[in-house]
Design brief:
Radius of gyration: 17 Å
Low-confidence stretches: none
CATH class of the largest domain: Alpha Beta
Number of strands: 6
CATH superfamily of the largest domain: K homology (KH) domain
Mean pLDDT: 95
CATH architecture of the largest domain: 2-Layer Sandwich
Strand content: 25-35%
Number of domains: 2
């Protein structure tokens, strides 16, 4: 079991420290009382974490298949509910890999990540529709 701590720095700027001991800075937009837009917003971090989580899974699985790409990137587009709570209702994850990865290997790695290994994807799946696509041989 882990422990995460979040401390107010000033205004709306917070620092969060995870059980790994690593910290991340967060801030609100100037529209929010005290926000200075000096760091990522919490929802941005959730989507970044989703991309990092599935990305690490996919690369790990592709390495085990001995088909690691020379280049790899992810883009996430999200849709949010209007009003409150403004939950993320849908994400579309696009994976970009170089053309040295067989399509069947990439698809299998993505499927395994999103359905089994990525705890963030599995946590939000009950609230958020998760769709994906991939581009082989195209960079973002």
């Amino acid at each position: 079991m882990g422990e995460t701590r979040i401390n107010l720095i000033s205004g709306m700027q917070f620092v969060g420290t995870g059980s790994s001991g690593h910290s991340v800075l967060m801030d609100a937009s100037p529209k929010v009382s005290g926000g200075k837009d000096s760091a990522a917003r919490p929802l941005d971090l959730m989507l970044i974490a989703l991309g990092g989580c599935t990305g690490m899974d996919v690369i790990s699985i592709l390495r085990k298949m001995r088909t690691e790409p020379a280049a790899f990137a992810i883009k996430i587009d999200d849709e949010r509910a209007e009003g409150y709570p403004s939950v993320v209702t849908k994400v579309h994850i696009t994976y970009y890999v170089t053309n040295d990865v067989p399509e069947e290997n990439l698809k299998k790695a993505i499927d395994l990540s999103l359905s089994k290994y990525c705890p963030i994807a599995n946590t939000i799946a009950g609230v958020t529709e998760i769709a994906f696509s991939y581009e082989i041989g195209k960079e973002i």
